[in-house]
Each structure stands twice: as structure tokens, then as C-alpha cells.
Amino acid sequence: MTIKPLGDKVVIKKLQAEETTKSGIVLASSAQEKPQFAEVVAVGPGGVIDGNNIVMEVKIGQKVIIRDYAGTNVKLDGEDFIIVKQEDILAIVE
User: Fold this and answer.
1) What is the spatial distance between Cα 67 and Cα 34, in angstroms, rounded to a whole number?
2) pLDDT by residue for the chain (94 residues), tens digit each?
3) Count of other CB atoms within 10 angstroms of residue 43
4) Global confidence as pTM
5) In angstroms, rounded to a whole number, what is the distance separating the alpha carbons of residues 46 and 54?
6) Of 44, 42, 36, 43, nearest to 14 (Cα)?
């Protein structure tokens, strides 16, 4: 199965949190930061939404930074995804 987002929605998959620090210290899961980095899996078509013309600025495969607690969590074929509005994406990581 695949997810095809509508309108200004973007499907993302969160990237794993760092388990060790740069100096090699292993972090307990409770001490790990909630990752805000994600990879774009699918992008909606954009278009006119609520009277505003929305141009989609992200592309599949890009790494992005998202807002905390943004979107709707979805589990499909054993994988976790999040569906967010494009406005919940704060930046593209290059």
C-alpha cells in the first residue's frame, strides 16, 4: 500500500534519534531528544486551498525539520509515518 496525500499535506518518516553523543557516551532512551528531523516520503499536489494558492516547496527524499507534535501519526505495513501540512515544515536540510 502507498499513501497519497491530498492538498497541502506531506507524508514524512521521522529519522532515528542519536543513541550516542559525539564523544561516544551511550544515551538511555529517556535521555534522547525527540527527533525533529524527518524524510519526505510523499507530497500532495498543492493547489487552491481555502482561497490561497499553495505551491509545494518540498520534494520526495528531502530531509526536513518539523514542528514539535505536528501532524497525524499513521501506521501502514508496519512502518510509522506522519502526515503534516506543509506549513508545519520549518526548514529543508541540505
Assistant:
1) 11
2) 889 999 999 999 998 765 566 666 765 555 445 558 999 999 999 988 888 899 999 999 999 999 988 899 999 999 999 999 999 999 999 9
3) 20
4) 0.79
5) 5
6) 36
Q: Where are the beta strands (DSSP E) in 1-94?
A: 9-14, 37-43, 47-49, 52-54, 63-66, 72-76, 79-85, 89-93
State the pairing for strand pair 52-54/47-49: antiparallel
**C-alpha cell belonging to residue 73:** 501519526
> What is the grid cell recorded at 27?
544515551
* Three-class DSSP category at 76: strand
Distance CA 6, CA 21 (A): 39
